[in-house]
Amino acid sequence: GIVLVAINPYEELPIYEQDVIYAYSGRNMGDMDPHIFAVAQEAYKQMARDEKNQSIIVSGESGAGKTVSAKHAMHFFATVGGSASETNIEAKVLASSPIMEAIGNAKTTRNYNSSRFGKYIEIGFDKRYHIIGANMRTYLLEKSRVAFQAEDERNYHIFYQLCASATLSEFKDLGLSKYFYLSA
């Protein structure tokens, strides 16, 4: 299949705006520069032409920009599928409550707020290829982090937040004043 190597610039660039989406929409792979929109367009085109499920695998190290790349691909699908203004589907799919981020994010040596979840996102399309729904499954990648953290890394944010809240009346009975598995 198609492989795209992308580098996280750690800042927003003007290469993900609506006019760029429209520039890639309907084009063939190779007509334009390599881009996440080119990969998304190819998957969208093959889904519509062959009426078969398509997959885009976004892989990389901590801080590589996997979540951002997935958001851009979903924004592309929502825009070309006529759903962007109606549903803002990528925001809905990726919206996580602060508590979910706290449970699955931790400080690593590369990223203070690194998601330690693997994510499987399934987007449903109707017969006109408009997005009709989506589902995201998450998989906790590092259960061992609960009991051990490498030097300069931390446990999941939730443990620090709970300990910081230990003196609040609603938490007093939980015995959170000391937790053995926290690094500084």
TrEMBL record:
SUPFAM superfamilies: P-loop containing nucleoside triphosphate hydrolases (SSF52540). The keyword Metal-binding does not apply. Keywords: Actin-binding, ATP-binding, Motor protein, Myosin, Nucleotide-binding. The keyword Protease does not apply. Pfam families: Myosin_head. GO terms for biological process: actin filament organization. InterPro entries: Kinesin_motor_dom_sf, Myosin_head_motor_dom-like, P-loop_NTPase. Belongs to the TRAFAC class myosin-kinesin ATPase superfamily. Myosin family. PANTHER family: MYOSIN, UNCONVENTIONAL MYOSIN-VB. This is MYO5B protein. It comes from Corythaixoides concolor (Grey go-away-bird). The gene is Myo5b_2.
